[in-house]
Amino acid sequence: MNEQQKYFWEGVRAEVPLLIGVFPFGMIYGALAIDAGLSDVAAQMMSSTVFAGSAQFITAQLVKDSTPGFVIVLTIAVVNLRHMLYSASLAPYLASVSTRWKMLLSYLLTDEAYAPSIIQYENEGVKPFSHWFLFGAGAALWIIWQVSTALGIFLGAAIPDSWSLDFALPLTFIAMVVPVLKNRPSVAAALSAGCVALAAGSLPYKLGLIVAALVGIAIGIFLEKRMNATPDEKPSIHALRESLDE
Amino acid sequence: MNIWLVMLVGGLITFGMRFSLIYAFGKLHIPETMRKALHYVPPAVLSAIVFPELFIRSGRVDVSLDNHRLLAGLFAVIVAWASRNTLVTILAGMLALFIVQTVLK
After folding, report:
1. Hey, is B60 helix, strand or coil?
2. Does position A16 have pLDDT exceeding 80, yes or no?
3. What chain B residue is nearest to A168 in terms of C-alpha separation?
4. Contacts of A196 in chain B (CB under 8 A)
């Protein structure tokens, strides 16, 4: 196996646990889209053009409510604003790949492909073929998203609610976020973002998520700077903790 | 605007956002504070998605024992911390939700 294949399959493997959460989500989307009045072809097509779970759910709802097209498009733009954060976050690691690769990887850049890939990059840094990891994760997700959408369209609303399979999605995010809470600033960033997301949940267009993320990031930076600015307080314990954390 | 056009334009906008800063990175200098900020994107964004999923039931924050997803989610946090394994965390969380739903019915 060459280096490209090695990274590709590592990406696929890292994506597998997330796929367990994504699969029922895709099926539910397919079923809901049909229920909202989208045709089979339209529901399936949205999974390949927009390719973003929450935006697709909201679009289905808006179509059901006979919302004008330009409002739907605007809503998709706002809900997907967070992808600019992902784009900025991955940009330094993808600086050296070709524009074609950047386009392909951008198309595949979802929440679920971003999460394992950023962790991979933060742990291992940039290697010559490490973008194949993101490609593997994104491609695996793309295929599963298309297949699960199709299944959802055909099986319709036959999935019983009592299965609660949709809960697998937040569980996968929990599994991703806990290991990155390596120090106090990152814990504070996570807790503050979560609390703001709760407080700002009533903001329209999922803007609460954006506001919460920005607050969490700001608090993380602030604490990091303050910790660095006061090294004289119990320096030995701090140094020891930091070295243990690494 | 018909539904096909909505999907096409919606798709292009989504792609544009995903592509924007990856493409512009070579042309724009990202300051040190920005780099530091990006380090906190994963914990902040993931928590901002997870908290409402766990705490909000029927449009309101619910911290009672009736909120089965919160209980199962907190258990999953402990399992995630102890195991550092995604699959184990999901299975434990799903099992916890099933048990909580059965016991606290």
Report:
1. strand
2. yes
3. B90
4. 48
Of B69, B76, B39, B72, the closest CA to residue B52 belongs to B69
B22 touches chain A (CB under 8 A): yes
Domain ranges of chain B: 1-30, 32-103
Pick from B10, B85, B89: which is nearest to A73 by CB?
B10
CA distance B71 to chain A (A): 12
Instruction: Identify whether the C-beta of residue A134 lies closer than 8 Å to the C-beta of residue A103.
Output: no
Evaluate if pTM is beyond 0.90. no
Indicate the domain borders of chain A. Answer: 3-169, 181-246
Between CA B12 and CA B52, with CA A202 as vertex, the angle to 5 degrees is 85
Put residue B50 in one of left, alpha, beta given phi > 0 → left and psi -120 to 50 → alpha.
alpha
Report whether A59 contacts B6 (CB < 8 A). yes
| Contact assessment for residue A92 and residue A55, using Cβ atoms and an 8 Å cutoff | no
Please tell me the distance from the alpha carbon of residue A78 to that of residue B37, in angstroms, as a whole number: 21
Q: Can you tell me the ipTM of this complex? A: 0.81
Bridge pairing between strands B60-61 and B56-57: antiparallel
**Residues A152-176: b if buried by 16+ CB within 10 A, e if exposed:** bbeeeeebeeeebbbbbbbbbbbbb
The pLDDT tens digits of the residues spanning A110-152 come to 989 999 999 999 988 888 899 999 999 999 999 999 999 999 9
Question: For residues B37-50, b (16+ Cβ closer than 10 Å) or e, as one string?
Answer: bbbbbbbbbbbbbb
Question: Is-contact A96 A83, C-beta < 8 A?
Answer: no
Distance CA B9, CA A45 (A): 13
